[in-house]
Amino acid sequence: MNIHEYQARELFEKFGVATSKGSVASTPDEAYAAAKALGTDKIVVKAQIHAGGRGKGTFTNGFQGGVKLVTSAQDARDIAAKMLGQTLVTHQTGPEGKLVSKVLIAEALDISRELYFAILLDRATSAPIVVASTEGGMDIERVAEHTPEKIFSEKIHPTLGLQGFQTRKLAKKLGLTGPLIGQAGKLFTAMFKLFMARDCSQIEVNPLVVTPDGRLVALDAKFNFDDNALYRQPDIVAMRDKSEEDPREVAASAFNLNYIGLDGNIACLVNGAGLAMATMDIIQYAGGKPANFLDVGGGASKDQVTAAFKIILGDPNVKGILVNIFGGIMDCNVIADGIVAAAREVGLSIPLVVRLEGNNVEAGKQTLAQSGLALITGNDIADAAQKIVAEVKKAA
Ligand code: GDP
Ligand code: MN
Questions:
Q1: What pTM was computed for the model?
Q2: Which residues contact 175 (CB under 8 A, 6 or more apart)?
Q3: Whose Cα sits closest to atom 15 in ligand 1?
Q4: Which residues, at least 6 apart from 322, have a Cβ–Cβ distance to it below 8 Å?
Q5: What secondary structure does DSSP assign to 89-117, as a single string?
Q6: Among 151, 201, 380, 392, which one has the highest count of C-beta atoms within 10 angstroms of its own C-beta?
Q7: How far is the CA of 69 from the centre of ligand 2 (A)?
Q8: What is the pLDDT of residue 314?
């Protein structure tokens, strides 16, 4: 799960991570009031979307930049009016962009240096790790590609946590000196506390800035949370903005389905994540393009299968469906029941290829055969993939 920058700042404030003053606005008038309340004429207006690269982004109406510095509350209002209700395209949003329905109005700081600081989960050590760089304010992927020596990391001990000697080491590598070293220690420690307390999988601050008057401040923040820990993070769940998420994925999460929307036209419904990956690969190999990743899991109920089918059929790009079930724990007949129920409810009008194998497969095949649905049987995974690709091509 992700949150907006203005929400990230609320967390920073709660945990004592230094950030600039600011508040969120949904209308130009609110933006004006928020700017007035800052009591300064150095103001930054920032479009709130779940994607980075806003500063260099472009609105679909031609307006340049989702991060704008202004010098009066009146200008903040005008810029907010140009952003709100508009779609912002950045290198992270994809060409369709994201609708801006809120802006952050923050005090603009003077900047001496822009740094990069992130805490994430390191799969190699199964523990948190700090990744930092002197090259803040730009794409970290680009820094990694061109000047990888300017990125460094510090592994965090899983039970001891981020320790004082480590924060000092990091501060030094970031070129911080004097009182800034103490500030860095405080900021990094507070951020690590927040990371652990809220079950984050990533906190990325880009840029972390040094101001001319010698302060270290987090100016931007991107959070990711571990979805499996959300049950114990009610205040994080309350920050969820479903309008930012793929509606297909929102619907899937309501039924505990592991679904990821893609941009192909062959939907797949599979049990098991590995088999789902293999199925996507083999669709591609057969010359098609998968419309989604979907793992219904080992213990899916008929309701879940029905929901999964409806989500698939609700995607206008989908021109064919491949069901690939290897019933180990999963009962093939439950899948068959779900397919039939959903197909009847929504009215199946596109080709459907089903490959069933394993537990209770005969009953499952019988259910499908007696349903009167016009479906095609796949003998094995390769055969099924070839058949659905051929059907979709035929229909096109
Ligand atoms: P992003 O483009 O989505 O990553 O948004 P950021 O919050 O990182 O803002 C983009 C850039 O705008 C930053 O790298 C800064 O260069 C600039 N910026 C953002 N906030 C301020 C500010 O308070 N003062 C100044 N001078 N520049 C800012
Ligand atoms: Mn940024």
A1: 0.82
A2: 113, 134
A3: 137
A4: 266, 267, 268, 269, 279, 283, 353, 354, 355, 378, 384, 385, 388
A5: E-TTT-TT-EE---EEEEEPPP-SEEEEE
A6: 392
A7: 14
A8: 86
